[in-house]
Amino acid sequence: LSVIERAVVAISTHTLTQELRQQAQREAHTLKGSLGLFGLEEAAQLCREIEQLLRASDGLSQSQVEQLSRLVKTVWHQLGTHTLDQNRISIADVSMQLETVQLETVQLEEMPRFVLLIVDDDVALAEQIARAAIAHNIQAITVTSLAQARAAIAHTPPQIVLLDLTFADSAASGLELLEELSVQQPSIPVVVFTAQEAFVDRVRVAQLGGKGFLQKPIAPTQVVEAIVQVMQHSTTSEAMLLVVDDDPAILATLRTLLEPWGFQVTLLDDPTQFWDTLERIHPDLLILDIEMPGFNGIELCQVVRNDLRWAELPILILSAHNDDHTLQRVFMAGADDYVSKPIRSAELVARVLGRLERSKLRQKLRRLEG
What's the pLDDT tens digit per position in 83-102? Predict the structure, then answer.
């Protein structure tokens, strides 16, 4: 705020230079976004008012100059009475926001969350796990041999496999299938579920890329909970996000919010490099600021939608404006979702997770229809 304070003094003494005014405007704009990201909505709104007054600083009346000074002091007070700890994102916040987001796509959410292939010759146990999976809205397919598993994967690729290592009627090991799946593209996560206790098996499973090792006996509900946890990690850890904003400070803040959730985040502060970056990293989701010099977020969104290769790439638009006209422009350009600034951390993460999940559901639906 020091630059803004200097600008206020300069305005009062009629010594404000164009350079100082531009610096103060940039600082107010940066603070507006950064404070919003950390949930300090009131302080962010004050910075928005400061930015608007600075843009008209040549013609400010004495009362407006005094208002500007009061706004700066109030922001200082806001920063002094709030701590980041009070506004850190929590899993509970995200869960609540995610429930709200999911209500928007009831039809898609009625589909199974994902398909689980259970490979185990213990039929009774496999059926118990399948019933527990259904209770979690997971479609479960059970097979009793490696040959059946290979056929099932070829016919309808599952999103995850629960694999036993031993079979009573065969000398073959489940490690053979795990090794095959470890080199398959696209990859299918595998959780091993076995009564074998040898440490060497655990090592071999890890070497072959297994995502989990469950020791029998274990309750079917615990098995399903482990499966869900692996799938949630898989959904985020493999997701590449491209975030475009001309403000490096906001980009850095977005990185700190998103990376702890396992996302791979690529930041871009130069919109002119957008297309080269898009084609180089092939992101799973775009986050675009609506207000940028050169090319704005609406234009970038339109460019993406004009290329059929990216027709279904999820796009989130960030903007400080939430009026009807802005929303109409956002969705007419082809954006999937909109997050208003000041950004609530939990809402941002929830909407990213929701869009990624919906994208996976659409891909699964196309595979089933095909």
Answer: 444 444 444 554 555 454 44
Q: Are residues 249 and 363 in the same domain?
A: yes
Nearest-angstrom CA–CA distance, 195 and 188: 23
Work out how many domains the chain is built from and give that number. 3
Query: Comparing C-alpha atoms, which of 255, 251, 294, 287 is closest to residue 271?
Result: 294
pLDDT (tens digit per residue) in 205-215 = 988 888 889 98
CB 168: neighbour CB atoms within 10 A? 7
Structure tokens at 193: 């579920």
User: CATH no. for residue 212?
Assistant: 3.40.50.2300
pTM of the full structure: 0.49
Q: How far apart are CA 269 and CA 252, in angstroms?
A: 10
Q: Nearest-CA neighbor of 346 among 267, 258, 255?
A: 258
Does some domain include residue 274? yes
In the numeric block, which tokens belong to residue 298? 């609406």
Residue 66 placed within a domain: yes
